[in-house]
Design a protein that fits this description.
With about 300 residues, the protein is α+β, with helices and mostly antiparallel strands. The protein has helices at about 1-15, 45-60, 70-75, 80-95, 105-110, 125-130, 165-180, 270-280, 285-290, and strands at about 25-30, 35-40, 75-80, 140-145, 150, 185-190, 190-195, 205, 215-220, 225-230, 235-240, 240-245, 260-265, 300-305. Helix 2 runs antiparallel to helix 7 (about 165-180). The structure holds adenosine-5'-diphosphate and magnesium ion. Adenosine-5'-diphosphate binds near residues 103, 106, 165, 229 and 249.
Length: about 300
């Protein structure tokens, strides 16, 4: 539902800020588990972007049994395509840079809390403790010479849900550029990539406060991506407590570091995506310290204490 609100706000932003005589084509499709909207002065843009994102979903989704990620998760060792190998390597790097806050090996914890099959439950402490033994990117062994990825412990799994969409947006933008398209906005459920500008002015998008207690903010983007991570889209509430889908790999519990949303703007979708997840886990102080190591990014946070509602 919030995805729809975000998409809606972006459409309004585009229509209001643009010159009404110049035409924009809009097309929407469900991909990578979310609504993906493509807006461009060129009609052919949407097919190019959708095809590329579909290709990456087929390669990287843990929900597709034939994807390279699913086959690696099933076998514990696999020779991957250079592209899948690359994204796992980048994930490991970001894990290290974030002190383990971003970690694709949280997959068994995501399953344990029921976020994969949407049968939400609060696990026993002993289950969390056992599952934590499978978590830690240093337990993924990468062989650069032959693209083989191997897990150090049986039962380990990876989940690229915190980075794949951002990477897919980068790839879609590249395909569009290669096809000679200079202007396009792709919104994948709140994560956006803006290629070029819109009729001479930067693309403008609306960022809503997730609990709608603060006014909408607008940001301009040009050859940049923005990603929002929060606890307001995928969550369940049990006995008045909110449990959301971003897991703190240190505790094994849904991250609770005082933020309800983090928005990161970066030249690359991959960086924006992974860092918004990492900073959500770290909280304001440590998150801002991490952001300082990435001079090209911009950070916007909404703190729990400023929100008036659950
Ligand atoms: P969204 O999927 O809504 O865009 P994020 O980019 O923040 O949100 O990614 C959240 C997803 O990333 C979760 O659904 C899960 O698949 C995965 N994930 C959860 N916790 C972590 C973590 N600490 N590090 C890396 N990935 C995570
Ligand atoms: Mg993310």
């Amino acid at each position: 539902m919030n995805t729809l609100i975000n998409v809606f706000s972006i459409i309004i932003a585009v229509l209001l800020s643009g010159c009404q005589q110049q035409r924009l084509y809009k097309d929407t499709r469900v991909l990578m588990g979310t609504f993906v909207e493509v807006i461009s002065p060129e009609k052919r843009a949407s097919k190019i972007a959708f095809d590329e994102m579909q290709r990456l979903e087929n390669l990287l989704s843990k929900y597709k049994p034939d994807s390279e990620v699913s086959r690696l998760n099933a076998k514990g060792e696999l020779k991957l395509s250079p592209e899948a190998f690359f994204i796992i390597k980048r994930s490991k790097d970001i894990s290290q840079a974030s002190g383990g806050a971003f970690d694709i090996t949280v997959a068994p914890l995501v399953d344990l809390w029921g976020f994969t099959d949407r049968k939400f439950k609060i696990p026993q402490d002993t289950e969390i403790k056992e599952t934590l033994k499978l978590v830690g990117s240093e337990k993924i062994v990468l062989n650069d010479s032959n693209n083989v990825v191997k897990f150090s412990f049986p039962g380990m799994k990876i989940d690229l849900g915190g980075i794949a969409k951002g990477y897919a947006l980068d790839c879609a933008a590249k395909k569009l550029k290669d096809a000679g398209i200079k202007s396009c906005l792709i919104n994948a459920g709140g994560q956006v990539y803006a290629l070029g500008d819109k009729f001479g002015t930067p693309w403008m998008i609306g960022i809503k406060d997730p609990r709608r207690v603060e006014p909408t903010e607008f940001i301009t983007l040009e050859n940049q991506s923005t990603s929002t991570s929060g606890n307001y889209q995928q969550f369940f509430i049990k006995d008045g407590v909110r449990y959301a889908h971003i897991i703190d790999p240190k505790t094994g519990f849904p991250a609770k570091a005082g933020l309800i949303s983090v928005t990161v703007t970066a030249p690359e979708g991959l960086t924006a995506d992974a860092l918004s997840t990492a900073i959500f886990v770290l909280g304001k102080e440590k998150g801002e310290a991490l952001a300082k190591n990435f001079p090209q990014i911009k950070l916007m946070e909404v703190e729990e204490k400023t929100a008036k509602t659950q």
